[in-house]
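[recover] target loaded
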């Protein structure tokens, strides 16, 4: 039974970025895995094995979330997203307790690359089931498995850190090297064609942090190969899609960072949605309820779709209250610093290094400045892995050491 649950966790991780219209398959997998975990180990939801203060913080976050649900009318789907995220966290915690070698990272990021390849293969032979899936390309941008180019770009940035970390380590067999570089090149390509400016900025921030903690693992030959790969991927992406109406010119997308040609772009760069949400938050210290921001701001897109805060920090403050926001931001900030220290010791959480985790946390934090992440499981990946690693008793002596060794 234990092996079955572990297999379900890996399956959920592999499918985590896949989104059908109105349903995330990974959510359903984690619901099933969570039910089995409750039967096998009823104490697991208490997260025994991580620091008591972290457990208390998680408990209070859940409590404040419940208060926000009672303070305002709530969107049931958003409550389900939150519960599913907790089930993902509980499943990862339970599975890794039984097997420190469980390849969660490979399932997450290898699964992401495989899903992209499969979706592109189905689309390329003109059998794309539009009645079931979203458009794979829209407005010149690659939507990817999440059905959203921004979340696709964010997940691609995570893949870059994971595969880069494997590439800089010696002792890989030839097949492993080929797979690693294929994953790295694929992640770079997906990041570019997503056209997500937020993901580009987030990827750059995370990469800077990764290089800072892993600088001694690099050599000039590897740096040169990496630079050549980035240039090669950019050239190939522009060549592949220059004659296609499906993907916008990447250089044109870069240009819009400096110059916004339409009112919708100007509103985003002017933080109109964020300012409107914060104005609502000022009057509702307990929150207005999950998913309720558009109901209070009254802002919608040209298609009539409601628009949220477009900022994860503003979203949490507005919908879940001041107290939960302060607690959650403190928890994640402490997690970042503790994981950074573990990264300097080059510790691993299962098959994912703390170098990768701290880079992913950085990327998530920067990306959250321009997008709402609570309803997207992609946004939960590194906060969950970071908290489990940073507050694990297994690493307590290192993270609380008076002096940290250099990488």
């Amino acid at each position: 039974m234990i092996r079955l649950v572990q297999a379900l966790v890996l399956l959920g991780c592999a499918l985590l970025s896949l989104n059908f219209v109105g349903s995330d398959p990974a959510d359903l997998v984690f619901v099933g895995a969570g039910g089995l975990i409750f039967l096998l180990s009823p104490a697991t939801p208490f997260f025994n094995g991580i620091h008591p203060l972290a457990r208390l913080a998680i408990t209070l976050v859940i409590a404040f979330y419940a208060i926000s649900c009672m303070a305002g009318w709530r969107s049931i789907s958003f409550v389900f997203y939150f519960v599913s995220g907790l089930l993902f966290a509980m499943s990862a915690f339970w599975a890794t307790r039984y097997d420190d070698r469980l390849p969660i990272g490979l399932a997450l990021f290898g699964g992401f690359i495989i899903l992209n390849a499969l979706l592109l293969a189905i689309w390329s032979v003109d059998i794309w089931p539009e009645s079931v899936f979203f458009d794979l390309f829209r407005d010149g941008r690659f939507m990817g498995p999440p059905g959203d180019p921004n979340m696709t770009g964010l997940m691609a940035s995570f893949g870059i850190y994971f595969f880069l970390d494997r590439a800089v380590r010696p002792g890989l067999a030839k097949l492993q090297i080929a797979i690693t570089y294929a994953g790295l090149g694929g992640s770079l390509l997906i990041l570019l064609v997503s056209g997500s400016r937020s993901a580009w900025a987030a990827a750059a921030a995370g990469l800077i942090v990764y290089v800072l903690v892993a600088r001694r693992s690099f050599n000039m030959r590897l740096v040169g190969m990496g630079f050549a790969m980035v240039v090669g991927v950019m050239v190939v992406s522009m060549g592949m899609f220059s004659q296609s109406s499906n993907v916008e010119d990447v250089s044109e997308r870069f240009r819009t960072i400096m110059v916004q040609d339409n009112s919708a772009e100007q509103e985003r760069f002017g933080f109109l949605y964020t300012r409107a949400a914060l104005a609502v938050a000022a009057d509702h210290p307990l929150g207005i309820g999950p998913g309720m921001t558009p109901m209070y701001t009254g802002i919608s897109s040209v298609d009539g779709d409601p628009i949220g805060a477009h900022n994860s920090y503003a979203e949490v403050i507005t919908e879940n209250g001041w107290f939960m926001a302060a607690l959650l931001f403190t928890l994640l900030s402490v997690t970042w610093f503790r994981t950074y220290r573990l990264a300097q010791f080059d510790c691993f959480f299962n098959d994912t290094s703390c170098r990768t985790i701290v880079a992913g946390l950085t990327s998530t934090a920067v990306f959250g400045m321009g997008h709402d992440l609570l309803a997207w499981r992609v946004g939960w990946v590194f906060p969950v892995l970071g908290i489990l690693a940073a507050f694990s008793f297994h690493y307590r002596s290192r993270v609380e050491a008076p002096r940290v060794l250099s990488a």
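[recover] notes: The first strand starts at residue 137 and ends at 138.
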